[in-house]
Amino acid sequence: MSFKRINYRRVTTFLVIFVLVWMFLLIKDIPKPLKDVRNKLSAEQKYDNIDKEAISQKVDVLFERVSNELEESNRLLLEVQQKLLARHGGGAVRELPKKPILPVLVVACNRVTVRRCLEQLVKHRPDPETFPIIVSQDCGHNATYQVIKSFVDSDPSISVVLQPNQSDITVPKKMRSLKGYYKIARHYKFALDHVLVTLGHEAVIIVEDDLDISPDFFEYFLGTYPLLSKDPTLWCISAWNDNGKQSLIDLASPGLLHRTQFFPGLGWLLRSGVWGELRPVWPEA
Ligand SMILES: *[C@@H]1O[C@H](CO)[C@@H](O)[C@H](O)[C@H]1NC(C)=O
Ligand SMILES: *[C@@H]1O[C@H](CO)[C@@H](O)[C@H](O)[C@H]1NC(C)=O
Question: Which cofactor does it need (predicted)?
Answer without folding.
Answer: Mn(2+)
